[in-house]
Amino acid sequence: xxxxxxxxxxxxxxxxxxxxxxxxxxxxxxxxxxxxxxxxxxxxxxxxxxxxxxxxxxxxxxxxxxxxxxxxxxxxxxxxxxxxxxxxxxxxxxxxxxxxxxxxxxxxxxxxxxxxxxxxxxxxxxxxxxxxxxxxxxxxxxxxxxxxxxxxxxxxxxxxxxxxxxxxxxxxxxxxxxxxxxxxxxxxxxxxxxxxxxxxxxxxxxxxxxxxxxxxxxxxxxxxxxxxxxxxxxxxxxxxxxxxxxxxxxxxxxxxxxxxxxxxxxxxxxxxxxxxxxxxxxxxxxxxxxxxxxxxxxxxxxxxxxxxxxxxxxxxxxxxxxxxxxxxxxxxxxxxxxxxxxxxxxxxxxxxxxxxxxxxxxxxxxxxxxxxxxxxxxxxxxxxxxxxxxxxxxxxxxxxxxxxxxxxxxxxxxxxxxxxxxxxxxxxxxxxxxxxxxxxxxxxxxxxxxxxxxxxxxxxxxxxx
Length: 465
Ligand SMILES: Nc1ncnc2c1ncn2[C@@H]1O[C@H](COP(=O)(O)OP(=O)(O)OP(=O)(O)O)[C@@H](O)[C@H]1O
Ligand SMILES: [Mg+2]
Description:
Elements (H helix, E strand, L loop, with lengths): L7 E5 L3 H11 L4 E5 L2 H10 L4 E5 L10 H13 L4 E6 L4 H10 L3 E4 L4 H26 L3 E2 L7 H13 L5 E4 L6 H11 L7 E5 L5 H9 L16 H4 L4 E5 L6 H13 L1 E2 L8 E2 L3 E6 L3 H7 L4 H7 L2 E4 L9 H16 L6 E2 L1 H9 L5 H15 L4 E2 L17 H19 L4 H8 L3 H11 L20
Parallel strand pairs: 1-2, 1-3, 3-4, 4-5, 6-13, 7-12, 7-13, 8-9, 9-12, 14-15
Antiparallel strand pairs: 10-11
This protein binds adenosine-5'-triphosphate (ATP) and magnesium ion.
The site of adenosine-5'-triphosphate has 14 residues, from helix 7 and helix 15.
């Protein structure tokens, strides 16, 4: 069984001296299997499932011809298409190289083998093989979704974070604004072996299209007007750590192509530069945009999406996280109360009920803001629904059915309008009534269109929308 630290590599060569040399130079970093002909190679493939195969083309019984090696490439890839085959050959003519790559080899090295070059190729090959396998496993099971509304959401997110932190595969985090995408990305970084390295976050929607490429990839001196000196990009700055690409849906198509290449090859070219730079950076991306729609409309590349979404984490909106809203509120309350020197503050029962009933368009960020404000503003030790600027849920009063129905209707309509910021059409659609019918009820129940009042609430800040 291959460990992530020591990927399995099979070497197929009939040259004993070369086998010995490779065993010495690669044995510390890889779990090596050795074979000297096609039959031996097939037997070794039965036993292990190598990430990469280093293959000599001229094998017995026909060592002077590439036919045995070429046939073996096909057999290796039929068994597992994720295996990376690197051909090592004494035949320097371009023809066998082209044929080997045409048959499915990922690279070609002429003998005598330059060990340093081989190390670079091998490291990259094993990494890509691992991702491809992880990707296929992920494709055959649903993406890591947090089950909505069962109150265990946070534990599931935490378990997912721990699981993906152990690998280096790219992660795509999806979720509405304020659901904790950046926080999840940081948690993945902090829980993995890269925690000592940098966490570099870049908001792709905040950078003008013309600058984003050089911001990410860096540039050489003189690459364009104004490039007075060489500059490292964010990808390079994140070497040894994690690059967080926020609002990935806003990356322009040409930059998507370059990023795709980086994900595949782990190497970049600075703008205006020629040389390839190997950069060991883990990529985590996030968005609240609908990438499926972007792909349908041609603004988001499908191949880029699949490379990026090796692991997908869907963060549910707060309104679907059941009791999490109360648990989170208690956590925030304790934190802010301590910060403000007001320990001992408590949430009243109606405040908890109001938290459960609110639709949370701004998700966790909105909750955090409401609790922070309540801690500052409340005059007693008990935080009530009003301190959170929430309406307590209705309890029907009176004895007639009509009174009870009016109270519940009033409450439902108020919440629905609040969710849709006072807009009649979507609120009516959600309530399942026509717009005139909604106007009629507002009038009859004595409700205003804007249930939050005149806009004095701090929750109308752009941070929430
Ligand atoms: N599980 C959590 N526990 C405590 N605080 C959280 C949690 N998740 C998110 N937060 C807090 O909520 C706020 C919003 O989180 P974050 O910035 O990660 O959201 P986001 O999804 O990236 O939002 P946006 O799409 O608007 O950028 C942050 O202040 C963060 O600290
Ligand atoms: Mg964010």
